[in-house]
Specification:
The protein is of the alpha/beta class. Helices cover 40% and strands 15% of the residues. The radius of gyration is 21 Å and the shape is globular. The model has no long low-confidence stretch (mean pLDDT 96). The structure holds pyridoxal-5'-phosphate.
Amino acid sequence: MIDYAKLAGKDIASLVAYQPGKPIDELKREYGLTDIIKLASNENPFGPSPKVLEAVKASLDEICRYPLGDAFHIRAAVAKNYDVPTDCLVFGSGSNEIIELLLRTYVKAGEHVVSPSPSFSVYGIIAQAMQTSCNWIPTGARFEVDLERLLAAINAKTRVVFLANPNNPTGTYIPENDLRAFVKRVPEETIIVMDEAYIEFADATDIPNTVHWYKEQPNMVMMRTFSKAYGLAGLRIGYMIGDAACCAMMNRVRQPFNTNMLAQVAAVAAIHDTEYLQNVIAGNLSGKKYLYEQFEALDLDYIPSQSNFIMVNVGNGKKVFESLLAKGVIARFYPAQGEYIRITIGTQKENETFISALKAVL
Ligand SMILES: Cc1ncc(COP(=O)(O)O)c(C=O)c1O
């Protein structure tokens, strides 16, 4: 018998694959339920803009052709939207692929990456799959990122620091002044990756928008995605903005047709529909306010969020998570944050359904 674990090597054999939020279909099969709401993967509950749907439908006949390898139209649209040169962009099949491209391009055996913990587990999964590692640095009592501890963990072998801002799963953020002071102290050969997957939802006045920071700080890059506020999670498209020389190396490593044609077309329509985006953001803010009020009425402690999800302390996270599943509500539970569940902010109807299920299970 072939020992594939041995062939893969110990890093891959010991790798724990990413655990996505439970799909609706799976819960239907397991529990025989018909009415299910999924508030587990920080997706956009309002769906994509109608203009996106029109653009995708109008392009369906073209799927026999390869997509534009350089993502020409969405590249031009993003460049214009943020006023950055077109060669300062890298596109990926979701920002997940950007994370992979970054590590494949820049992290070598014996080097490592650093991230606050908890944060987006994919940083560690990809690092380990590349036979390197992620040094997870604990956050504080209210999940605040400890920048001094992060700095202390950085050494000559630290090739990348990941900072999800706002962070997932906590919804916390690093204020602009703290980040400015931090980045100046990071060595030039450590790449600072700002993961701004949820930035569109943020309303704190002191949360930094780092789109242009790479100009003064060339070891800094910024990732964004169309999966969240733009509602295109199923199509897979995200991008990075950074120094042109940094992007050029990554574009050498990138698969030639890594973002699919429908994703490119949809993203162009989405970025132009600013009115729809504003409605999504407003819907998220009112859902957040409603959930805060409900948690307060139930005397539940929660972590104030700059994102489209909230960590709420329910005492026994695993039990509440499982009881909610039985009632057709899919939340998220992380064993390391045992007292909490994370709930994605849904439509008002979904939020109300979640709250009545929560009241029933508590
Ligand atoms: C912090 C963070 N970064 C990146 C991603 C990846 O998103 P995508 O690959 O869909 O762009 C996610 C997805 O949940 C996330 O939470």
